[in-house]
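Hey all, sorry for the wall of text incoming. These are the two entities for the joint prediction.
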Amino acid sequence: MTSTPAAPGAGAYLDHAATTPMSPAAIEAFVAELTATGNPSSLHSAGRAARRVVEESREAVAAALGARPSEVIFTAGGTESDNLAIKGLFWGRRTTEPRRRRILVSAVEHHAVLDPAFWMAEHTGAEIVLLPVDDEGRLDLDALRAELAAKGDEVALISVMWANNEVGTIQPVQEVVQIARPYGIPVHSDAVQAVGQVPVDFTASGLDALTLTGHKLGGPVGVGALLAKRGLPLTPVLHGGGQERGVRSGTLDTPAIRSFAVAVTEAVGARAERAEHLAGLRDELVRGVRAAVPGAVLRGPDPLVDPSRRLPGNAHFTFPGCEGDSLLYLLDSAGVQTSTGSACQAGVPQPSHVLLAMGVPEDDARGALRFSLGATSTHADVQRLLDALPQVVARAQAAGLASSAGTSRGVSSTTTSTTRRPA
Amino acid sequence: MRVLAAMSGGVDSAVAAALAVEAGHEVVGVHMALSRNREQFRAGSRGCCSIEDAGDARRAADVLGIPYYVWDLSERFEDTVVADFLSEYEAGRTPNPCVRCNEHIKFEALLDKATALGFDAVATGHYAQVVTREVTETGPDGEPVTRTVRELHRSPNEAKDQSYVLAVMGPERLARSIFPLGGFTSKDEVREEAERRGLSVSNKPDSYDICFVSDGDTQGFLRSRLGARTGEIVDSEGEVLGEHEGAYAFTVGQRKGLALGRPAADGKPRYVLEVEPVSNRVVVGPAELLTVDRIVGDRSVWLADDVLAAAGWDQAASDWFEATVQVRAHGVPVPARVRAVVGPAAGASEEASGAAPAQGGGMEVELTGETLRGVAAGQSLVVYQGTRVVGQSTVQRAYRAARATSLAG
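and here's what came out:
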C-alpha cells in the first residue's frame, strides 16, 4: 500500500527533515476531499458526511499510534500542538495547584517548545528549567532526577522531544515518564521527527501528550495533532466554536485531516521497511563524508556504532573552518539541497542551540550541516553530495579564512549578544 | 563572469542586480545582515538592515530568478564600522561610517568571501563609473605589454554621485567591483527600470541616515554607547559659555545644538572650532576661525598610479600636482595642489618601483582657490582630476597657513 512520492525537483534533496514530499495517496485523498462540501460541525447530511471523514481519520491516526480516538486533537501542525501542550498544560495545572510553576524542558528542544516556554516565563510567571544533555545530545536523566528530587512538587510539566530534529538523537522518553510518574507531573513529547521513522506507541510510552505533524511524514503542511490523555487538564489556547473537546476551536479542515490520516497510516505501516532503506543510505552517507572530508565531525550518536540511538534518516556533521551558509550556498549551486539544521532569523543561520547545549564550541557550530533523508532519497542523491563535497569544503574553508581575517572573533568588547535563546 | 550582487533591499541594488543578469553574468544575490540584534530590526525602510529590507531583497531576487542568500556580517560590522564610529567620535574626530562600511564590509569582508567562494566580481548599486583603458608598457623582457587600467569616475548623476564614499576601496578592490548604475543620469530612470522589470521596490524611498542609528539621533546613540560625560563649552579665549554632556557628540563646523544661553558679543552665530577629547572641552567661535586652506591626511589610498608617476618623486614625497578635493559626501570640490607623502606604512623600496609609492601613507593639500570651512579630523578627503578619482585620505588636521595654528586634531 506504500506509494512512492515524486522527488522534489531536480538535484539531490537532502532536507526531508524540513519538509518531505506528499505521498500520492495523501494527495489523492486531499484532492478528493476538496471537492466535497460540508462543515463537520453542521448537523445536516453534508456536515455529517464531513464529520464521518474526520472521525474515520481520527480513528486511523489513533490506530497507527497506539492511542484512543478520543485522545487525538487535530491542530494546524507541530507548532500549534507544542504551544497547546506547553501553555495548556501549564495553565490547566495552575488552576488546581498554583505552586507548580516550573516548566522542565530539554535544552535541545525545537523552538516550537522552547519559545512558548520562554513566553510563559515572561508573561505568566513560569520558571524555565533547561535540562542538560550529553555530548551526543541525549538528555541527562540524573539531572532530571536531581531536579525532581529537589523541587518535584513545584513542577507543572516536563517536555522532552522524542527525537532531535538537528542531530537525530533519540531521547529516553520512556525513562522520563517513569521518573516523573511518582511526582504526578504530566510529560509531553514533540515526536514530529520520530513518527514514521522509529516506533511510536502513545499508550505504551506512558506520555500524557505527544505532538506530530503532517508534512514531515508525507502529509500536507498545515495539519497535525496533539495526542492528549483523556482527563488531562488542558486549557485551550484557541477559543471559539468549541471543536475538538473544546480544547481547540476552529472549523475542522476535512481535506487536510483526511490526507494527514492517510499519510500517518502509510508512514507507520511502511516504517520498518523504509527505516531500513534510510539507515542503509544514511550509513553510506556517513562513511562517504568521513572519507571525503577527514576533518568532518559527526554530531550526535554514531549510527555505525549503535544505530538504535539515532533517527535512521538523519546525519549531521560540522566542518571545521567553514561557515554553514557558505557550505549551503556551494552545495546548492552544485545541485545538493541541505540545511544548517538550526533556526534562521531573517535568513541568517544562527549557531545552533542544540550543538551549543552538546558542548560544541561556537566556532565549530557555525560550520554545521544536516543531511536528512526521506522516502524519495536514492543512492544517486548521496553520491551527488559525496562528489561535490571535497571541493565545496575546500572553498568554504578558504571563505572562512577570508571572513575571519581582520577581525578577532570572540574577543571584541563592543559586541553584544542579545539573544534570549538558551545557550 | 560569476557575479555576487549585494542586495540591500533598495531599488538601486535591485536594478544593479538586474543589469548584471542582463549583461549575461551568472548572478547570485546576497543581503548582508549587519545588525547584531536581530530582534530589534528597524521597521522602517530607511536603513539597510531591517527584516523588511531583507524581504524586499529576497523578493527582488525571486523576480530576477537568481539564488538569494543572507550573509551575517554583523560581527564584522560591529567590530569595524560601529567600533570605528565610536572611537573616532570619542577621539574628537568626525567619522564617515559609510566610507568605513565600504572599506571594511562591502569591499573587504563581502568581496573577500565572494572571491574565496569563486565569484569574479561584486556588483553594487552605487552611482559611480568605472572607465577602462588600455596602456602599453615595456615588459621585463623589453617587449611591449598591454594592461587594462580601471579608473573610478564620478557618476553623471551629480546629485547621487557616490565616488566620494567608494574611493577608499583602492585599485585592487576596484578591479573586482562593478557598478551597473554607473551610467544612469537620474534616479527616476533607475526607478523606471525597476518598474519595467516588475521590481516592487521601484517606489521605495531613498535611505539617508546612518543605518545603525535607528532614529537618526546620532548624539543620542553616542550617549547611549559612550555614556554621558559632562564638560565645558568655551570660546577661543577659554571663557566658559556653557555645558555639554559629552564632547564626543560635537563635530567641527557644527552650529546647531550648542544650547548656549548668551549670544556672542558681535551677535554672529558660533560654530564648533575644536573638540578636545582629553580635557572634554568644546571650543566655539565665529565662522571665520573655521576657514582652512591646508589639509593633512593619513591612511591614503591612491587609484591613479599614472598621476603620481607623472608628478614625479623626490625623496619622501611626490611633486605637487593640480587637482580638486572634496571633504564631504555631497560637498563642492575645490581646486588644490596635492602631493603624496610616504608614510610609515610605505617602504622606501616602493619608490623605485614607481607603482603605488604611497599607499597607506600621507597626503598634503593646499587649497589654491576657495577655502573650506569646518574640516574635521576623521573626515574623508577625496582627490579628483575632472571626474576621475585620484586618491583618498583621512583628514588628520586642517589649518590656515596664514594663522599657522591647527584647528583640528
